[in-house]
């Protein structure tokens, strides 16, 4: 019986030692799991912060681009308006010049007609005097 008791005691100690080892390993696994979980959470936070910063930068650039486009279009409107005004003024000026040129041309042609008519009457009068 003593041998049985010693053997049982030895087995109990070995079992207790194995249980302690197992508890240490389970605790180490828990600690390692917690460490890895915390590391993953930190990575997620880091990526989230980086994504938010990138989104803010994109938003700022988009706003800036929209303002630049609005300014460009506004300046284009002013430039276009001034170009059309200049073109309209030039065409109006040319229209006035063309009207003046046409009037002068009519006057010159009317004067030539009258001079040619006078020469014709003069020539006709001379011819009639020759034959009469």
TrEMBL record:
Keywords: Cytoplasm, Cytoskeleton, Motor protein. GO terms for cellular component: cytoskeleton. It comes from the Eukaryota. It is found in: Cytoplasm, Cytoskeleton. Its main location: cytoplasm. InterPro entries: KIF11-like. This is Uncharacterized protein. The lineage of its organism: Eukaryota, Viridiplantae, Streptophyta, Embryophyta, Tracheophyta.
